[in-house]
Amino acid sequence: QVQLVESGGGLVQAGESLRLSCVVSGGTFSSYAMGWFRQAPGKEREHISTISSNTGKAYYTGSAKGRFTISRDNAENTVYLQMNSVRPEDTAVYYCNAHEGATGVNYWGKGTLVTVSS
Prior knowledge:
It is built from no helices and eleven strands. The chain is mainly β. Strands 2, 4, 5, 6, 9, 10 and 11 form a seven-stranded mixed beta sheet that branches.
């Protein structure tokens, strides 16, 4: 059974930095494209970033570009999201996603809450 566990969320002030981590167990981490999504109160879940399984190429959406950096450590089965210059509008529950390309299956963590105060 594939499990994803996020950590690193918390309360930060606008302009500060935060690093989220997601540890994957029970599967073949190196074969998954890994992503981060977030869901703010009253809004739909939105994509932030994805890092490919093979080339390590990273993709970003919207306001994450230029502020957030995704990375992965295949030896530690961990994906990270470095968040710099955070803004109050970054307040959300952040979810880790593992996408198995061969089957199209997506696995999700339970999320970690990030709250940015102004």
